[in-house]
Amino acid sequence: MAKSEDQEKPGRIKQLRMIAKIIKQANPKGMPIVFLSAIGTLAVIVAIGLVTDYLWYSVFIGILAAFTVGLVVFGQLAQKAQYSILHGQTGAAAAVLEGMRGNWQVTPAIAVNRDQDLVHLVVGHPGVVLVSEGPGNRVAKMLAAEKKRVARVVLGIEIYDVQCGDGEGQVPLGKLQRHIMKLPRNMKKPAINEVKDRLRSIPRNMPMPKGPMPKGTRMPRGPKMR
């Protein structure tokens, strides 16, 4: 058991270095912000300890708090850096959706048009969510057509449509996960699995976009504390 944990450590360190490199490329001030936030947290808690005569206790608490704050800031900057890399790429919304935590099933590109606009299918606690990529004037018809097609299979299940993009009334890529996660929880796990089974019967026979989709690209969730 200890041996397997030792083997995982180099992998985790390599992953952290890779994420740090991505942050540095997207924002040169990113890593200094991480270190300053951790050091600032430690300094504030130690200062409080000096005033209250609990110096050693505050040092211990300060180190834990600084580590936690550093991890949180590191994770947030990593997520922003990943968004900036994905922005403008075909299939960026699918990559963001596939990084969501929880019981979600994401089927990328269930509909594609000649302009490489996409519609992705998401199944989870809210029900069925159709997420589009592309200008609003082009994807509105695609979403309506897919909503009608899906509704024939999942009778009585709530279907939401979300336009991901930078246009008016659209959800920006950086806010897409949060928007989906905030939708009402209309279904429990058994119902979700039943809907997934029903949707597998829908045929998928359509042209894929010419540009490369960011395959397997997932949003970083930050390092886990042990």
From TrEMBL:
InterPro entries registered for this protein in UniProt: DUF4191 (IPR025445)
Keywords: Membrane, Transmembrane, Transmembrane helix
Pfam family, one: DUF4191
Disordered: region residues: 202-226
Membrane-spanning ranges: 30-48, 54-74
Keyword set includes Zinc: no
Biased composition (Low complexity): 203-220
Name by which UniProt lists this protein: DUF4191 domain-containing protein
Presence of the UniProt keyword Membrane in the record: yes
Domain of life: Bacteria
